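User: quick one, fold this
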Amino acid sequence: MMVSSVWAALELSLTCISALSLISPAWFQTATFSFGVLTYCSWPQSDRWNQSCRTFRSLGDIPDFSWKVSAAFLLGGWLLLAFNSIFFLSWVLVPKGLCPGRGSGKMPSMQAAAAATTIVGLLFFPTSLASPFAKEACGASSVYRRGQCQLGWGYVTAILSAVLASLLLVIRWPRVTKVRGPTVLFSSDTEKIILVPEMSK
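Assistant:
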């Protein structure tokens, strides 16, 4: 139970960190402007604390097609990660008698899909640097070239979240070990354990 609680806490923390990186406007930034997947901010040269920020309310508001594709992948990856966290948390909180198969199932596959989808979105996002929106902010930017923009903490956090999701997946992936020896069967009718000796080949 303790181990499951730790895993649940890790999953929820990772989901929250991923959400924070998604709403962050600090993926690429200059001295007076910054933008992320869903938000962008501007401020006067001498007063960084006086920021004016806006949010893209839908994929249709995002100014570039590759940006939209990246946002769709990143949001999809986050939704999979969030659903996986909620699913895992429910297994931890539900009494053992009501959920005898907890700790198994399709959760590793769901987390693998979340990590892969997020990584694709992260790799695709820098192609949006060739968009007119990014060029206006970053100057001579192009695909995978940031021009005058600096890499912000939002993008770095998103990358770290994807790496951590992949590491958690590798650590928690169920391992099946073949053991040579007698097969153990459980008979629900007689409520006895039946040993079946291994047949010689």
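User: anything notable?
Assistant: Confidence is low (pLDDT under 50) at residues 184-190.
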